[in-house]
Amino acid sequence: MSETIGMFGTSGSGDTSGFGGLVPSAASVGSSERPYGSYFDEVTDELERAYPEFSDAIEKVIVDRGELTLHVKREKLFDTAMKLRDTQSLRFEICLGVNGVHYPEDKSRELHAVYPLLSMTHNRRIRLEVSVPDADPHLPSLVEVWAGNNWHERETWDMFGIIFDGHPGLTRILMPDDWPGHPQRKDYPLGGIPIEYKGATFPAPSERRSYQ
Amino acid sequence: MTTHDSYASATDTTEGRVYSVTGGDWDSLVTEIGQTKEERVVVNMGPQHPSTHGVLRLVLELEGETITEARAGIGYLHTGIEKNTEYRTWTQGVTFVTRMDYLAPIFNETAYCLGVEKLLGITGDIPERASEIRVLMMELNRISSHMVALGTGALELGALSPMIFAFREREKVLDVFEMISGLRMNMAYVRPGGVAQDLPKGAITKIRETVKELRHNFKDNEKLLVGNTIWMMRTQGIGYLDLAGCITLGITGPVLRSTGMPWDLRKTDPYCGYENYEFDVVTTDTCDVYGRFLIRMQELEQSLRIIEQACDKLEKSEGQPVMVADKKIAWPSQLSVGSDGIGNSLDHIREIMGTSMESLIHHFKLVTEGFRVPAGQVYAAVESPRGETGVHLVSDGGTRPYRVHFREPSFNNLQATSAMAEGGMIADVIGAVASIDPVMGGVDR
């Protein structure tokens, strides 16, 4: 997460609150310790049993707010997904899509893709998270595993510029086909409104002073 | 920047380069078709078409009247709501997400608020009365949404009268919404921590009367459509999608339940206290448009049952709070509905302007700055009329969301169009799409 100084995220001027020197601490979530609680231990154990490369494939296991997140290496994403879907004791037969998140401060892991999974057989939910560097935004497509990911991956390409290798037709889906850039990225320039009042202009939302 | 784009041809004018987006691929399509000897016709249906359920574009490849390939083109109603919420406080987000799936605003709001509450770790602190009101509003909303699905679905297949009856009933539900929240649609009524205001006097009585009327009037549409030979011929065996197809495409809601799978988040993963209500999950095993139609018809009755139980509970919890007790999160003012619309309650204005400086400061800070949400991510889901509405929220610890993503059931389920329509007749694609009941505001966000 980004580090900001002061209450408003601006420096030099504008902050009259007297809190200009404050540096809010950025919380980083580390890997969770066992026992994870709930069904999370069972799910990780079963995956470990079914998937010998588990320790190599899973970078982090995070249990937060009653939800389990497995951070997967992108090379192993496809295999992990197959195991999660097909192993009898796991059976995550539904993937609820993929969602991108852009962390520009997280160097060489800027783009994250998040897959919420649902097992109807066991009534369980987990989440897969993969990160890719901005310079090489390639991920294996999971359309072969869950066909319903087709449009979700197109949306994530459209909005974040993550390229899903092996996707049957990776084209823009929400924005027009000739649209430049990927709007949901944090560095995407926002337009703002060119209103001039006595020489002052109205800045874009991302550049306005605001509480952080 | 682009040299050639089959979907958007460019022409240079005195005003600069102009792109015409729609239909720009027509020339290349015609040339392509001319080269093959098969008798193929490509029909471009929509995005402005009375039968495509909104601004949906269907590209249909036909051999005679049989569809060999169906593709759905979306994005015509993309409004960037997810991006917008990143520049508003967590509470203001409600007014944006309510406009996504505009036929099910309460479901969007509730899913979003459940997510924010999970991030804040206050899920257990939400007053029971607030959850009861949420359930009441959601089930009323399910009725108004299903009424549009049934009414427009029938209209698109050429049955006009059901639409008149359906919209008549929907108006009654919207009147209740107006009485409770001041608005008929896009209410922004559910807020992080509870709901915007308590039920007004006489609301329960009005709801009970409405329930009685609705239960009586639903029979009109039943008489018109259930068992109607023409309707059954148009819908039975049409838009077939079995359980395996639904699972691999991630389909939820009535389409999934029409395969006989009793999957309903209200039962399998209860939220807002749904475990305390008695109702049945309606299923059919026909996997077709008629089955989905029957499910929606019967879900209306189940919603009425839940509303009646919610009314009983609300009568008992009269006078209890509807907002979380934590003053650092709870919206400081109660709203009230006046003769000129919705606004801050006069008592609150009197307090902050006349008697208490501290209340004024508190109000100002919470309304302009908002509250901070601890960093992390959550996924929360509710059973909307169309399936699982999921919301993925990411917070960086600030007063504004870092990322808001809606997993819209309409968006996901619309992918099934090809599977349902291909191999069928062109007239049946309308029924298939109507049975998915996509709302383009939700699809494109």
UniProtKB/TrEMBL annotation, chain A:
It holds the Pfam family Complex1_30kDa. Keywords: Transport. One of its GO terms (molecular function) is NADH dehydrogenase (ubiquinone) activity. This is Unannotated protein. Residues 70-192 form the NADH:ubiquinone oxidoreductase 30kDa subunit domain. Gene3D superfamilies: NADH:ubiquinone oxidoreductase, 30kDa subunit. Belongs to the complex I 30 kDa subunit family.
From TrEMBL, chain B:
InterPro entries: NADH_Q_OxRdtase_suD, NADH_UbQ_OxRdtase_49kDa_CS, NDH1_su_D/H, NiFe-Hase_large. GO terms for molecular function: NAD binding; oxidoreductase activity, acting on NAD(P)H; quinone binding. Residues 157-445 form the NADH-quinone oxidoreductase subunit D domain. Gene3D superfamilies: Cytochrome-c3 Hydrogenase, chain B. The keyword Translocase applies. Keywords: NAD, Translocase, Transport. SUPFAM superfamilies: HydB/Nqo4-like. PANTHER family: NADH DEHYDROGENASE [UBIQUINONE] IRON-SULFUR PROTEIN 2, MITOCHONDRIAL, NADH-UBIQUINONE OXIDOREDUCTASE 49 KDA SUBUNIT. HAMAP family: NDH1_NuoD. Belongs to the complex I 49 kDa subunit family. This is Unannotated protein. It comes from freshwater metagenome.
